[in-house]
Amino acid sequence: MVMVGGCASVLAGARARLSLLRRGVLPSSAAARVRVLGRTQPRFLATTQERGGDRVALVTGGSQGIGRATVDKFLEEGWHVVNVDTDNTVFSELKDKASRNNRRIVNIHADVADDGVASDAVSRTVNEFGQLDCLVNNAGILPVDTVRPAHEYSLENWHRILHVNLHSAFYFSRAALRVMVDQHEKTGNPGGVIVNIGSVHGLQTAHGVSAYAASKGAILSLTRQLALDYGKYGIRVLAVNPGTILTPSVRRILAAYDETEEDAGANYPLQQRAGKPSEVASVVHFLATDGASFMTGSHVEVDGGITIVGSWE
């Protein structure tokens, strides 16, 4: 945009009003809206204090791997967390972690590939904490016995992978968006953030993973579409594309093919290594914060540079 003529005076006036706002001189009604370049716009940045001091994240598949590291990171950064997972073996451990950080966690033992579970989990989040600031659609599967050419795929495996990896992200997003839109309309502040865990398989792929690749490509398209529809509510929707990360699932696949962790990272430009779950979790947390307030509809590769190589082979 090029500013000419009277636009300079408008900008000067806007700067003056912003200065008054920062000093607390403007009345609360004026503080809620600031005139920028001649147009009244909602203030789309809110500090943690303005949101009530606490933040709340709902994470699907938060008991293992990237999901577990994400739950840990949010707790360490002072968030309350809701974890939805079929694996309940670490629920007590997660509660202890939350307690040590003076935070609360709600663990829900359920299958994320169920629309009713998504609705109930979001409702419980709001009932427990009064808000939902970030949804992390992390749950995903790639069973070892499904790594095979498409013509050998069972429809059961195809549907199961799509249900967990893609459908659950839509179910939870739909339920969360209803809450986030309402939060924006009540406060004028951003409604919330959705971070989808995609994969570099959404950009390039490998042999034998047709269902997984299809689900992750669709996640990236869903991310862009939701960002377009819900930006007007200050709701940001982003994706993170991990490369090979040393999660329990990846270790099972490596063992099945008699490969080592070193083999997994051999083609990666960055130190010829695979990634750690915590390295993905740190990016997810950043995207959920106001530090990423002008990011939406895009994806971030946490992949050690494998996408610049273009292939694992």
UniProtKB/TrEMBL annotation:
Belongs to the short-chain dehydrogenases/reductases (SDR) family. Keywords: Oxidoreductase. The keyword Oxidoreductase applies. The lineage of its organism: Eukaryota, Choanoflagellata, Craspedida, Salpingoecidae, Salpingoeca. Gene3D superfamilies: NAD(P)-binding Rossmann-like Domain. One of its GO terms (molecular function) is oxidoreductase activity. This is Short-chain dehydrogenase/reductase SDR. It comes from Salpingoeca rosetta (strain ATCC 50818 / BSB-021). The keyword Oxidoreductase applies. CDD domains: SDR_c. It comes from the Eukaryota.
